[in-house]
Amino acid sequence: IDRLHMQMFKHLLDKMDSYGILDQSIAVLTNDLGTPTHAYRDVPFIIVGGGDGILKQGEFVDLGGVAHNKLLSTLISATGLRTATGGYIEDFGDVELENGVQDEMLA
Q1: Residue-wise pLDDT tens for the chain (107 aa)?
Q2: 0.85 exceeded by pTM
């Protein structure tokens, strides 16, 4: 099943690239559980596209156990959505978790 998902993701990326929209877009492939214990920690994410220059490209980034809400806030902000004052969206997800964006991912 994972091989099929990767093939479908590649097909999506190839189509986006053929239309010239890959660098302006963000495509995400993830798994529902991390490894090796099937926990909600260390879940792998493959993020492709630059979000129109907002995200770094061509790098492996190990976020070191940071909660997913910061990753998702970063992706939301990379789509161009902003707060009423023009800042990044930093409060997506569980209010009990640390908020903000992942500066390591930003260009």
Answers
A1: 889 999 999 999 999 999 999 888 999 998 877 666 666 667 788 999 888 788 888 888 888 778 888 989 999 998 888 999 999 999 998 888 888 999 888 88
A2: no
Residue 67: name the closest of 27, 46, 39 by CA: 39
Which amino acid, residue 94?
D
- Write the DSSP symbol of residue 48: E
Structure tokens at 85: 């004052």
List the structure tokens of 44. Answer: 């792998």
Tokens of 38: 């099937």
Q: Which two tokens stand for residue 19?
A: 């239309």
Please list, in sequence order, all residues whose beta carbon lies within 8 angstroms of the beta carbon of residue 91, skipping any fewer than 6 positions away: 73, 99
What is the SS3 assignment for 46? Answer: strand
